[in-house]
Amino acid sequence: MRFHRSNGPVSCRCFGASPIPLGAEHVARNVVLAVLAAAGAVTTGILPAGETAHPAGVLVAAVGGLTLGALIAVLDDVLGLFRPMSRVGPSGGRLR
After folding, report:
1. In sequence order, which ranges of 22-93 are alpha helices (DSSP H)?
2. Sign of the CA dihedral with 4 first, then 23, 78, and 19 last
């Protein structure tokens, strides 16, 4: 793992710009993605020679993969729904 050394927090730009600093959720997300990629690579050769995947199974896998990919792409936004709100107003001043 590579650590960034600077004067301030570094945000994750894996799926676009984000104001959220790098954290444990980013590491966990990347580990899960790596495990899923490895599992997909291992399972590509499971079908016996001469057999093809059933079209319905391919459709289910494609829809599931696209849905999971979309959720992972907006994971910072989803996790932001569960973070405490800041006490800073729209003009940058502190709220009472």
Report:
1. 24-43, 55-73, 75-80
2. negative
